[in-house]
Specification:
Elements: H1 9-12, H2 17-36, H3 42-49, H4 54-65, H5 75-80, H6 85-110, H7 115-147, H8 153-182, H9 186-206, H10 223-233, H11 239-253, H12 260-265, H13 276-302, H14 305-321, H15 328-342, H16 345-355, H17 362-371, H18 373-389, H19 392-410
Length: 424
């Protein structure tokens, strides 16, 4: 393994350059698109501008967080139906991207005259898009496990988080420019910009030299057989199972994040201008960019336990600070911390790959994510109902308590030194 102290070992290894550098470009382009329509800022601001209440915003949050988890066990079966699996993966991405372009078009048609219909169209199209991305996720992560050596995966996910967030800084800056240029049409431009950036990202992936062997494994008898493998690994006696339990509770806690933009602009909250969502998006991108590489280094050097504990404590920390975020420095700090929270997959993804049994990782990733489906559904609906009925302080308290519970479960995951190999 080649190592150079001036750069991360992953980038110093020349044998990986042909794959890693294009993958970083893919994440950079994808990050620009994500921050055009960030689920924690732009989407709730868009629904609020259309007249949606907290419950509808909660439904949107559930759509974005929970639906990708629903059908993940079928992802391998879908991709394996394509003669060329990499091309099939590109095609699935194109199907997932199309709704963003359609939302941009429908906003010009329905947004002003029939805002209620546009809310329905937006939620329906994003529901379809998120179901498709859910089929992609486990296969994509298994592909990464095949091409990136385990000792470098933390660095890889940290770098991809940083590149994605670096692209996000550009996307958030462009979003601010769109707001000044288009005014009320900023959302239409945001969805169009996101779709075009996603298309550019998939063009880069098409030309990335990923070998077909990265998608090939010994065939499983059935989807049920894959489910059984995942369920055995997710038993509480295994570190993998305890991590999954912590992720389930964490999924309910972070459901608060999309409501924070509404709190920031509400007369019952911070009372900030409606357009503040663009600045919050930019601050979140900065936080994600700064945190990505550090989190990757932390995972590689200590294992996933303490980095994940840190992720679970971010929600209680933000909840304590956010009521004081009317002052710009505090708002910036909270947004930076939320940006770091949005990169939680830079810890959870290498953790799932490391703590799961060897071989095809897709059934274990799928099982972990499907386990988060119900919490990801309940979290936004519960917190939305609390906000609408009891107010923001009660919802803040509930989310903070859930974050502390997720931390307690994370502390039960053993460290790398005393962990035994999982076998199923």
């Amino acid at each position: 393994m080649c190592y150079n102290r001036r750069v991360p070992a992953l980038l110093a290894d020349k044998s990986l350059h042909r794959i890693v550098l294009p993958l970083l470009l893919i994440e950079w382009l994808w990050g620009i698109g994500i921050y055009f329509v960030l689920a924690t800022t732009t989407l709730p601001a868009y629904l609020k501008a259309l007249g949606a209440n907290s419950l509808l915003i909660g439904v949107m949050a559930m759509t974005m967080s929970a639906l990708p988890l629903l059908l993940q066990l079928f992802g391998r079966s879908v991709v394996d139906r394509f003669p060329h699996r990499k091309r099939g993966l590109v095609g699935m991405h194109l199907v997932m991207i199309a709704p963003y372009l359609l939302i941009s078009a429908s906003d010009g048609w329905l947004g002003r005259t029939h805002p209620g219909a546009q809310i329905t169209v937006t939620i329906a199209l994003l529901t379809f898009s998120q179901i498709v991305i859910g089929l992609i996720i486990p296969v994509w992560l298994d592909m990464i496990a095949q091409v990136i050596p385990m000792p470098m995966r933390g660095q890889y996910f940290g770098l991809t988080s940083a590149f994605s967030a670096g692209g996000g800084i550009m996307g958030a800056g462009a979003l601010i420019g769109l707001q000044h240029w288009l005014g009320a049409g900023v959302f239409r431009g945001a969805f169009l910009g996101a779709g075009l950036c996603y298309l550019a990202s998939m063009t880069a992936f098409y030309f990335t030299p990923i070998p077909e062997s990265a998608f090939q494994h010994a065939p499983e008898p059935s989807v049920w057989a894959r489910a059984q493998k995942g369920l055995r690994a997710a038993a509480p006696r295994h570190d993998f199972g305890r991590l999954v339990g912590s992720m389930m509770v964490h999924a309910m806690a972070i459901a608060l994040v999309p409501f924070l933009v509404g709190y920031a602009t509400s007369t019952h909250g911070l009372g900030l201008p409606e357009g503040i969502f663009t600045n919050i998006t930019l601050y979140q991108a900065v936080g994600a960019s700064l945190g990505g590489i550090a989190l990757g280094w932390w995972v590689d050097h200590t294992g996933p336990r303490w980095p994940w504990v840190g992720m679970t404590l971010l929600i209680p920390a933000v909840i304590l600070l956010y009521p004081h975020a009317g002052a710009t420095p505090v708002l910036m700090l909270c947004s930076v911390l939320l940006g770091l929270l949005t990169t939680h997959w830079s810890v959870s993804a290498p953790a799932l790959l490391e703590l799961s049994p060897p071989g095809d990782k897709s059934p274990y990733v799928a099982t972990a994510n499907i386990a988060g489906f119900l919490p990801s559904c309940l979290g936004p609906l519960l917190l939305g109902r609390l906000i609408q009925g009891q107010g923001y302080p009660v919802a803040f308290t509930a989310a903070g308590a859930l974050g502390l519970c997720a931390c307690a479960l994370a502390l039960t995951v053993r460290g790398r030194r005393d962990r035994r190999q999982i076998t199923t």
